[in-house]
Write the structure tokens for this entry.
Amino acid sequence: MAPKKTRQESKKATIQKIVRTTKTMILRDGYNAITTTKIANEADISVGIIYSYFPEGKPAIAKEIFKEGIIELIDDEIISDLNEDTFPLFIKRIITKFVSQHRENESILIAMSIAVLTNEEIFRDFLFLNQTEFDKVTNLIYAMKELGLYKDPVSARTGILLLKVIDTLIHHHIVFEEIFENDSELIEFLTEFALKAPTFKTLQ
């Protein structure tokens, strides 16, 4: 006889069910086509349960889906192997992964954009989520400085600005309109930009 789930385990399982169901529905029907009632029906739970875990409703679930989708673009172990020869390929690999993540989760990104722009609380939480990526970039910048990969001064602020510009271009290209002929052209442009931008005087 299987042991009974604890209250905490049951809560976690219910949240995961809500998140998984919503993600499936977003990918299938689009964000605007679903409601908390439809999510509840498909997940076979009550609307009240959804709101007990996600008081802000659909936007809060979208935020949770986005949070779970954040991937580690920078591996700390790889940083230790960086040198002048491998650095350009390393940067290109990160950007390629970033573009692929956006492309694979296009529907989720559209849902998150709607949630962020229509709910002030979700918007504030979204800014907090971005800090995870910013911390990683800051660590990379410090590692690059230690390795002497840039001749000019590079600060953590530079890395964060680069991330914001890169993320904005990728997001616009994939979610709103394709501003490059294809993803490969976007990756090449962003790789060149990331390698040269830290030498810009305005970023130092």
